[in-house]
Design goal:
Number of strands: 7
Low-confidence stretches: 4-11
Number of domains: 1
CATH architecture: 3-Layer(aba) Sandwich
CATH class: Alpha Beta
Largest sheet: 7 strands, mixed
Distance between the termini: 16 Å
Strand content: 15-25%
Helix content: 25-40%
């Protein structure tokens, strides 16, 4: 999905903190559980090169969700997003969208997140492609799909 306009004044993004090198271990642990594999190289790379797109939700000192992103050749790319609820995912996405006002944006949302998809469409995103997560042979630990909201793109997962 992609969008060119977003009005951040319509959304609450208080309580979100930037991801720092000190909080990276918590982000990696949460991602490993939610995604079902170790993606530390990818996440460390995204944080190092694009820290302005990296935010987390912390509750009582514990990381509950996060968002990362990157620059692309045609769009600012948002993802992954790991969150405990659609509202939390929406707050994380809104935080990054607010900083990218009037810039082209792309993201890949998992198809089971229909409430998030409806919200994205209501703020101007347009569906352009469809993906299915695939694996070879058996997948003994697929992660927690309920916590996966955006992926990092088809080339990253």
């Amino acid at each position: 999905m992609h969008n060119h306009l977003f009005k951040p004044e319509n959304f609450s993004t208080h309580g979100l903190l930037p991801v720092t090198k000190d909080s990276l271990a918590d982000i990696l642990a949460l991602d490993r559980i939610a995604f079902g594999t170790d993606r530390s190289y990818l996440l460390e790379n995204l944080l190092t090169h694009y820290p302005e797109k990296a935010y987390q939700v912390k509750t009582s000192g514990k990381t509950e969700g996060f968002i990362l992103g990157r620059d692309g050749s045609r769009f600012n790319y948002i993802g992954p997003v790991i969150a405990s609820s659609t509202e939390e995912a929406r707050d994380l996405i809104s935080k990054v969208l607010g900083s990218l006002n009037s810039q082209p944006i792309a993201l890949d949302v998992t198809e089971d997140k229909t409430d998030l998809i409806r919200w994205l469409e209501s703020i101007g995103f347009i569906k352009q492609r469809h993906f299915i997560r695939m694996f070879l042979k058996s997948n003994h630990w697929p992660g927690r799909k309920e916590n996966q909201y955006l992926i990092s793109g088809p080339e990253f997962g």
